[in-house]
Amino acid sequence: MLSKFHTFLKPTGSILLDVPSIKAFEKREEGTVYEANLMNNFWSARKYHGFHHTFKYEQEKLILDEYTIIEANRTRVFYSWLQHFSREMIENELKANAFGMNGFFSDVAGSAYSSESEVFAIVAGKTH
């Protein structure tokens, strides 16, 4: 995705990224939830059975939320992958894609960075 941004961005342009932090990763736990009409009918207006499985991949700092939705006439499975980053990890990703970091904040509104933030925002621009 960063290489696509680099291709389309003007030389003086910037990107703003909203990134989940390692702090958020540490708070997540593996587990399984079963619920009739999981998430208050989020997945369907009809009656269904929902299973939500959460898997953590420590080395990659990656979370997989897998949702299995079972309705009378069909079963669907959805995968939501979310990678979490430290400041150093995201700086390395940016550098590898010819971006430099121009700002580092606790949110996209520009709040001062806190190590307790579960997300952080980065403003980055092309280095060449």
**N-end to C-end Cα span:** 17 Å
Instruction: Figure out the total of helices.
Output: 4
* CATH homology group of the largest domain: Vaccinia Virus protein VP39
User: What profile does the largest beta sheet have?
Assistant: 4 strands, antiparallel
Q: Mean pLDDT, nearest integer?
A: 96
- Return Rg in Å: 18 Å
User: In sequence order, what are the helices and strands, one letter per element?
Assistant: HEHEHEEEHEE
CATH class of the largest domain: Alpha Beta
Percent in helix: 10-25%
- CATH architecture title of the largest domain: 3-Layer(aba) Sandwich
- Helix/strand/pairing class, anyone? alpha+beta
Break the fold down into its secondary structure elements and pairings:
Blueprint: H1 2-8, E1 14-20, H2 22-27, E2 31-36, H3 38-41, E3 49-57, E4 62-70, E5 75-83, H4 87-96, E6 99-105, E7 119-126
Antiparallel strand pairs: 1-7, 2-3, 3-4, 4-5, 6-7
Task: Characterize the structure shown.
The chain has 128 residues and is of the alpha+beta class. It has two domains: 1-21 and 85-128, Rossmann fold (3-Layer(aba) Sandwich), CATH 3.40.50; 28-84, Single Sheet (N-terminal domain of TfIIb). The protein has four helices and seven strands; from the N terminus they run αβαβαβββαββ. The protein has helices spanning 2-8, 22-27, 38-41, 87-96, and strands at 14-20, 31-36, 49-57, 62-70, 75-83, 99-105, 119-126. The strands form two sheets. Strands 2-3-4-5 form a four-stranded antiparallel β-sheet, with no helix packed on it. Strands 1-7-6 form a three-stranded antiparallel β-sheet. The longest helix is centred in the last third of the chain and has 10 residues, at 87-96. The chain is elongated, with a radius of gyration of 18 Å.
